[in-house]
Amino acid sequence: MTDPLSHSTSTRPMLVVGVSTTKAEPALRPHKDGIGTYTAALIGRLPRHGWRPVGYAWPDGRPRPALSLGGYLPHSYGVQTAGQMLGLLRPAALDVDVFHCTDHMAFRTKCPCVITLHDAAPLRHPEWAAPRLRGLRNRLLARAGKLGDAYIAISHAAVAELVAHFGVDEQKIHVVPNGIDPLWFEAGDTLERYALLRSRLSLRGRHFLFVGTLQPRKNVDRILDAYLLLPVSLRREHQLLIVGRPGWRSETTIARLKAMRNEGVIWLNDLADDGDMRALYRQAEALVFPSLHEGFGLPVLEAFASGTPVVTSNVASLPEVAGDAALLVDPENAGDISSAMRNLVRSPGTREQCVARGLLRARQFSLDRTASETAAVYRSVL
Predict the structure, then answer these.
(1) Do strands 310-313 and 286-289 pair parallel, antiparallel, or not at all (unpaired)?
(2) For a Cys-Cys bond, which of 4, 78, 182, 209 suits 71, CB 3.0-4.6 Å?
(3) Which residue, 176, 175, 173, 118, is CA-closest to 151?
(4) Global pTM value
């Protein structure tokens, strides 16, 4: 483990960037979400571009498990934020050249600060978030728009909402798209893994796949509606596999998932192994990802790299990410989603075209490009 407070500035072989790693630390988040995946990928690639990353995670009570990416910040997020807002705590003095807040939990630092704001969904659509303490959470979230020396948006589509809902000066925003891990292009042992998963999950034939946290903006209920609109014969041959942990306001969705087990729907809320996830992608008939809102939409690229066609939304960042390689649908129209799913099964030509275009599209989003462009943002604030 690296101690984030132990680095000596006089002997550094390269510049040092502090990175917020709470969502990427295996000991704190064994199931990484999109932000955790983004953070972990950056940490792995930044040394190739002149920056040594050091992780800083928020303590959350005791005991504090040992960390693998760095160490703990002195205070919890709540104490740090309240203390700074009340003038009781000064900007944090971290022994780094730049600090990169890769999530929304921003705070004042003495060194230059870069903040990645993935989207403004909680501010733009507060009805999608849990009502408890929603107003306080959103005020703290919006505060991030005033604490950065530079900001990273992960798509061009996200820029306008960062300006509108966070109040970020557009001149401070740099668009740096996410990248895809090269492992997604490799078949590896996915066939062997899939054979074990089929037995474990009682999968039969092919399956449609959704991956993501269960929350309103992921539109899982319309995926269920679309699946039920498919012909019975097609549903017999193609189950619907939903992979995702419960999120905000997911109670009704979870109840439907459990009730539809006999309709060919399988809900998997615990899949921590990345190799198993790649196996499910690679053997899927299609990824069905008709989100109502996204800042990027990394599962689209993961499916493309796996040689799996994609049905996704024609709104927000998703057309920008998918290009001409996916079937774009109206996410509010279950019939539109269902028709695209059926098309990929019944039209081999459409499927082959989507697979070929998807592989080409995914190769345009490399992790090294993401790290290189992120490193350029760091240099811009020195």
Answers:
(1) parallel
(2) 4
(3) 173
(4) 0.92
